[in-house]
Design goal:
alpha+beta, globular, six-stranded antiparallel sheet
């Protein structure tokens, strides 16, 4: 797959590689794959019906440890359930994460950008958005767009373009293997 460009003509990272440093606070988006249907109890939100497909979760990491701490936490399957995404993660596999080390909180702007992608659907209103006015911070891409490899790549490209357009100059991307390795590379 070749590298594309976004509306601002900045290069987009190609699929399968990783760029950027995560040693700072910032905003992130996790791309997840779900292979089996089911339901998940999500704390006070109630039950979430999940279907096979691609999911994207947008969050921020401006607390202690910044992006490295938050992304390595999300890469782990077993953990205490603190956020809505913690309930969904055991039922999904981590594909990649996009991030920005901009000091500006881009979480809400990114959620709006992803929501504008034509194939994005909101599987659970309020997911990850209990402290803001966003409709959701979790999005699902329809089966027809994400079941095949070409559909999955198309969803990934659409998301990358939407995020990069509002990601500032500090936009990066990490594949799943590099995300799992974050805890091993702590300084």
């Amino acid at each position: 797959m070749t590298t594309g460009t976004n509306q601002d003509r900045r290069p987009l990272p190609p699929a399968g590689t990783g760029t950027g440093r995560v040693d700072a606070p910032g905003t992130y988006a996790l791309m997840l794959r779900c292979r089996q249907s089911g339901t998940v109890s999500v704390g006070s939100l109630g039950r979430l019906s999940i279907e096979p497909g691609t999911y994207l979760y947008v969050g921020s990491a401006f607390g202690p440890g910044g992006l490295r701490a938050r992304l390595s936490r999300h890469a782990a399957r077993t953990k205490l359930k603190r956020w809505h995404i913690d309930y969904l993660r055991p039922r999904t596999s981590l594909v990649c994460a996009w991030f920005s080390t901009s000091p500006e909180r881009l979480e809400h702007e990114w959620a709006a950008s992803v929501r504008a992608v034509s194939s994005a659907r909101i599987p659970q209103p309020g997911f990850g958005a209990s402290d803001c006015t966003c409709s959701s911070h979790l999005f699902r891409f329809s089966d027809s767009d994400s079941d095949s490899e070409s559909g999955f790549d198309s969803s990934r490209r659409s998301v990358a373009e939407a995020l990069a357009a509002s990601g500032g100059d500090s936009f990066g991307w990490l594949e799943a293997g590099r995300l799992r390795g974050l805890t091993r590379r702590r300084r």
